[in-house]
């Protein structure tokens, strides 16, 4: 999973670990998780919080091309009202951080001399 997406989830980690229903979320992510990953989450931890921690850790390891963040957020939106609230919070954090990162990229890119002259002439 992309680093900015991981950071968005980490920003809400405590709430996700506390409130998320891991088995319900896992059931909706069955086509994303391998059988081994699902079994690891389901059977190695009896406490809900531990299952949630493991589920998040597994999602972080999934390749970006499989869109683990997007699918996780969609599942949260669909499964439960409290999950939907968490999904919106995570998504809002991601969008905010992503915009900040894009702005930083743009602001650190300087104009060439020719671009600067053209820019000044347009003003």
CATH superfamily: Death Domain, Fas
Instruction: Examine the secondary-structure arrangement and name the CATH architecture.
Output: Orthogonal Bundle
Number of domains: 1
Mean model confidence by pLDDT: 86
What is the number of helical segments per DSSP (H or I, 4+ residues)?
8
Helix content: over 70%
Strand fraction equals: under 5%
Task: Offer a concise description of the structure.
With 123 residues, this protein is mostly helical. Helix content is 79%, strand content 0%.
Provide structural commentary.
By secondary structure, this protein is an all-alpha fold. The chain has one domain (3-122): Death Domain, Fas. It is built from eight helices and no strands. The chain has helices spanning 3-11, 13-19, 22-28, 35-44, 48-61, 68-79, 81-108, 113-122. Helix 1 (3-11) packs across helix 7, helix 4 (35-44) packs antiparallel against helix 5 and helix 6 runs antiparallel to helix 7. The chain starts with a helix and ends with a helix. The model has no long low-confidence stretch (mean pLDDT 86). This is CARD domain-containing protein.
């Amino acid at each position: 999973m992309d680093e900015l997406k991981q950071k968005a989830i980490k920003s809400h980690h405590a709430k996700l670990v506390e409130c998320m229903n891991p088995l319900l979320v896992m059931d909706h992510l069955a086509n994303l998780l391998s059988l081994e990953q699902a079994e690891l989450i389901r059977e190695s931890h009896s406490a809900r919080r531990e299952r949630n921690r493991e589920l998040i850790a597994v999602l972080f390891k999934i390749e970006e091309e499989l869109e683990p963040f997007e699918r996780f957020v969609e599942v949260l939106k669909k499964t439960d009202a409290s999950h939907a609230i968490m999904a919106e919070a995570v998504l809002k954090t991601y969008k905010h951080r992503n915009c900040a990162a894009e702005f930083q990229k743009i602001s650190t890119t300087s104009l060439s001399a020719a671009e600067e002259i053209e820019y000044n002439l347009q003003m």
